[in-house]
C-alpha cells in the first residue's frame, strides 16, 4: 500500500535533491563517447558546476518541460511537468509543476514563487495541502542571525533557488571527475560523474567514517536503499544547460548499475519573454498554513 509519507518522498525527490530514489537503467544515453570529434573542451572538473550555476543565474528566463522516472519501495512512478523561471527583479520568480501517476490517481506538486511568497501546493492521495513561506522574512532572519554565507545564501532560500539550488546541492555534496562527451537524443553533450565527498560519505556510512574521511574505499552497500553511489550530470556544450540529471546505484549482486532518479528537461527555451501571470498564485478556498517559522527552525533559527 502506498502511504502518504512514501508518496511525498517520491514526488519531491527530483526537485529538492535531498532524497534519492531508484528506477531501472535505460539505454537512452550512450555509455561511450560518440565517434564525432569534439571541437571544444569542457570546464575543468572543479569549475563545471560553478560555471553551470553561473550560466543559469545569468539567464533572463528559463522555460522547459520536464520528465522524471523514479522507483522506490518496490514502486515505479512516472511523471512530467513544467519549469519556468524569470530573473527580472530583486528575487527570481519561479513556477515548478510536477504530475506523477500513482496507480489510478495523479498527484500534483506545485511550487510558485511570486517574489515575496513561496506557495507549495500538493494534491496527494485525494488530499490537498497548501503552505506559504515568506521568503523576504526568511532572508531577513538569516541576515540578523549572520547566516548569509555560502552555506545559506539567498540563492538557496525556498523559491529562490530553483534549478540552481539543486545544482548547488550537487556541488556541495559530490566531487566531479572531468566531463566527457555523451549523447542525448542525438545531441552531443558533456557528461560529468560525481561521487560523494568524503565528509558527506562519512555521515552516510558512520561505521566507516575513518575510511571515508581518508578517501579509502568503503562498502557502499551500507548506504540506504534510496541513496545513490554517484550522480551523472549532462550539460549542453554551448549553453551549459543541465539537460539531464541521473542518480546511480551500483548493485554488486548483479554486477551492474541502475539509474536511481532521472530528471530530464526538454523543449528548453532560454531568455524568451515569459508571461508574469505564471508566477501569480491564488489559493482560492484552500487556506494556506504558514511554513516560514518551520523552515527557519530547520535552519536552527527562530524569530
Describe this structure in words.
This protein has 303 residues and is of the alpha+beta class. 21% of the residues lie in helices and 37% in strands. The protein has 7 helices and 13 strands. Strands 1, 2, 3, 4, 5, 6, 7, 8, 9, 10, 11, 12 and 13 form a 13-stranded mixed sheet that branches. A hairpin with a 5-residue loop joins strand 10 and strand 11. Helix 2 runs antiparallel to helix 4. The longest helix is centred in the first third of the chain and has 13 residues. It is globular.
The mean pLDDT is 79
Helix/sheet category: alpha+beta
- Individual helix count: 7
Proportion of residues in helical segments: 10-25%
Question: What are its keywords?
Answer:
alpha+beta, disordered N terminus, 13-stranded mixed sheet, 7 helices, 303 residues
Task: Explain the layout of strands and helices.
Elements: H1 4-16, H2 48-57, E1 61-72, E2 75-86, E3 93-102, E4 105-113, E5 117-124, E6 127-134, H3 135-144, H4 162-173, E7 174-176, E8 180-184, E9 187-196, H5 198-204, H6 209-213, E10 230-236, E11 242-251, E12 256-270, E13 289-290, H7 292-298
Parallel strand pairs: 6-13
Antiparallel strand pairs: 1-2, 1-12, 2-3, 3-4, 4-5, 5-6, 7-9, 8-9, 9-10, 10-11, 11-12
Can you summarize this structure?
This protein has seven helices and 13 strands.
